[in-house]
């Protein structure tokens, strides 16, 4: 049976982002990086000081991953690019889906082998979004097609299972994952939320193999066990949680990004801190954030 808990949340940054997303923990520099997609910003937040810096990258930015010292890899609207976090310089890598003007790239992260996975989103009338894997040698691979919004993704602690969310379908899928080849097979439904009024968005996975999924329009983050059963629901003071990640010295602090985009004035009054960055201390340990690296 699921527990419903009101953890003591801390609003660590009153950022009022339009579409805060994609938080990652930089264990070397002890920073949280996150994006504000429609404001074209990559944020760098220091929990120790409360200071937040941002880089205007000049385009919609859907996902980021650390890529060595002072560098991030980014999924922009139709491009991959590097961001130098010392200079703010954006260096394009390659264009993808330039022939699909209604698409843009969305969520992504690196697997334990340092390969960058990222997906696109499309108009709901045409399920032509895809999931990609960008390898260390610069090769690009299409991993899944026929999606609407490729979203929250991650790997089990034993690296045998890959998870992928398709938000409008209200489903989180599980695949068999081959860590050596990077291939995924045997897609099945891990969580089906079609009976709910909210949508699974970004996710993170803890060291026990449980999935923490932010629920768009749901005012909560839900923790699922490895069987796909809801075991914990964390209430939030905002309507549109978007993603989450574990950070801190012990990887036990859950950071949660949120959005304000599309809310009416009445909804904003009920959800006043929409777009802010939240944190809560848990009693479980998350998995580390993996770097992208080049051969």
From TrEMBL:
One Pfam annotation reads SGL
Lineage: superkingdom: Bacteria
Matching InterPro entries, A to Z? 6-blade_b-propeller_TolB-like, SGL, SMP-30
Domain SMP-30/Gluconolactonase/LRE-like region, first and last residues per copy? 19-259
Q: Which Gene3D superfamilies does this entry report, sorted A to Z? A: TolB, C-terminal domain
What family does this belong to? Belongs to the SMP-30/CGR1 family.
Kindly provide the name given to this protein in its UniProt entry.
SMP-30/gluconolactonase/LRE family protein
């Amino acid at each position: 049976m699921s527990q419903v808990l009101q953890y003591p949340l801390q609003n660590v940054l009153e950022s009022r982002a339009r579409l805060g997303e994609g938080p990652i923990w930089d264990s070397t520099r002890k920073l949280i990086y996150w994006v504000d997609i429609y404001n074209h910003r990559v944020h760098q937040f220091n929990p120790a000081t409360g200071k937040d810096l941002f880089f205007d990258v000049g385009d919609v930015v859907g996902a980021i991953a650390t890529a060595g010292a002072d560098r991030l890899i980014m999924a922009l609207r139709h491009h991959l690019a590097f961001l130098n976090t010392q200079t703010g310089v954006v260096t394009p890598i390659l264009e993808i889906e330039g022939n699909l003007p209604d698409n843009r790239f969305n969520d992504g992260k690196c697997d334990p082998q340092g390969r960058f996975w990222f997906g696109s989103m499309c108009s709901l009338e045409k399920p032509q979004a895809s999931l990609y894997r960008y390898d260390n040698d610069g090769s690009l691979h299409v991993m899944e097609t026929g999606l609407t919004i490729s979203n929250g993704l991650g790997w089990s602690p034993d690296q045998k299972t890959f998870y992928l969310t398709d938000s409008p379908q209200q489903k989180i899928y599980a695949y068999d994952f081959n860590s050596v080849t990077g291939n995924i097979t045997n897609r099945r439904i891990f969580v089906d939320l079609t009976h709910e009024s909210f949508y699974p968005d970004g996710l993170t996975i803890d060291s026990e193999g449980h999935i923490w999924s932010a629920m768009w329009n749901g005012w909560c983050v839900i923790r699922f066990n490895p069987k796909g059963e809801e075991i914990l629901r964390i209430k939030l003071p905002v309507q549109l949680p978007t993603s989450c990640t574990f950070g801190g010295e012990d990887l036990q602090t859950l950071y949660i990004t949120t959005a304000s985009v599309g809310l009416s004035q009445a909804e904003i009054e009920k959800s006043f801190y929409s777009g802010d960055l939240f944190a809560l201390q848990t009693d479980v340990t998350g998995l580390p954030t993996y770097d992208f690296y080049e051969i």
